[in-house]
Amino acid sequence: MTEQRKLTKFDGNLLWYLAGNEDCKTYSKQMLNETLSWICRERKINYVEIRLEEIVVSVENDRLQLIVNSKQVEYLPLVVVIRIPPRLSVDSHITVIHHLELLGCRLINSSAAIMRCVNKMWTLQELANRGLPLPNTFSYGCRSNPLNVLDSVEDQLGYPLVVKNVKGCQGRQVFLARDSCMLHETLPVLKHETPYLFQQYIRESHGKDVRVIVVGGKVIGAMLRQSADGRMQSNCAAGGSGTAFNLSPEGEKLALEVAQCLGLDYCGIDLLLSGHNFYVCEVNANAGFERFNSALGVNVAECISEFALAELARLRSEVNCSQLFFVDDSESIIENGKEQ
Predict the structure, then answer these.
(1) 213: Cα separation from own chain's centroid
(2) Which H/E stretch holds residue 245?
(3) Burial of 129 (0-12, 13-18, 19+ CB in 10 A)
(4) How far apart are CA 42 and CA 62, in angstroms?
(5) Residue 240 phi/psi, 5° resolution?
(6) What is the rounded CA–CA span in Å between residue 272 and residue 280?
(7) Using CA atoms, how far apart are residues 51 and 338, in angstroms rounded to an integer?
(8) Which of 123, 139, 262, 332 could form a disulfide with 327 if both were Cys (CB 3.0 to 4.6 A apart)?
(9) Phi (first) and psi of residue 138, to 5 degrees
(10) Can you list the pairs that 38-44 forms with residues at least 24 positions away whose Cβ atoms lie under 8 Å?
(11) Closest Cα partner for 116 from 326, 322, 259?
(12) How far apart are CA 126 and CA 337, in angstroms?
């Protein structure tokens, strides 16, 4: 345990929900907030919703400090549920999240796990290091000579092939290059600051994939996503449909291995179909679940909330008693915050 954590005071009866303004109107963000709120109220847990933009982090007198809405935080929560915006800022958002971790808070998900999913190529690197099944994929480290990338891609992948922005989301900035002419038309975008990747085209999975949601080391369910207009993208956010999918034991095992490899407490895993086999396409640490809930008749927000409260109960027994306080409700309210 670090010296900093030894000095931290925790409120053993407090849970935070940390989200970004960019995500404030989505179904998943609101559903998770409402579910955490009523479960905490039922179990007499103090609950506060905080936005990333309301936090100031500092280093003062050789110690980490935290300010929320211009008020110094004295008692920290043992558990913080994170709902990051789709377009995460590594410099600002991760700075805040990492600060909370160094203070000793248990984050769902951790900053390291989130970072592994910020860039699609970073995700694939981690999974390949574990030997998990993936489509053959190429990317690059220098934008100055992209022709070298295209030559390797053409030789190794052939056509058609998939081109993706490594930070794209909801099916955007993804297209199918059917021939050399279409691939070379990507040269201008390869010079942008955010790199692209080039991926093997799995013909059997054109316009469809399987979204698996994992919470706390358990598969909540699987949904088959299908394009509505024959396009390659199957994302529900791009107009695709979603129906319940009977995931095989092999598929379930793969999804759990992916979540464990990346260190994710909660995630959406997209699997491509090829006969009876699966390939891991992408992993989302901020997966939405509106269509998933309706297709499967489940409540993902409740699953996340129950896992968070189980972690809170576990940590209460592990934290040094000299650091653990049970603060009166009136003392723990954060000024201008959203105490529920």
Answers:
(1) 11
(2) none
(3) exposed
(4) 40
(5) -75, 165
(6) 6
(7) 10
(8) 332
(9) -125, 145
(10) 39/302, 39/305, 39/306, 39/309, 40/15, 40/309, 40/340, 41/340, 43/309, 44/13
(11) 259
(12) 38
Pair of tokens at residue 234: 């199957």
Reading phi first (left if > 0) and then psi (alpha if -120 to 50, else beta), residue 61 is in left
Report the sign of the C-alpha dihedral through residues 120, 122, 125, 126, in that order. negative
pLDDT one-digit tens code per residue, 148-206:
778 888 889 989 999 998 887 766 778 888 998 888 887 787 777 788 899 999 999 88
Contact 118, 88 (CB under 8 A): yes
Q: What are the residues whose beta carbons fall under 8 Å from the beta carbon of 147, sequence distance 6 or more?
A: 187
Q: CA–CA separation, 253 vs 297, rounded Å? A: 22
> Residue 282 is inside which H or E element, if any?
strand 277-284
pTM score of the predicted model: 0.89
**Tokens for 215?**
């919470």
Residues 331/18, Cβ–Cβ less than 8 Å: no
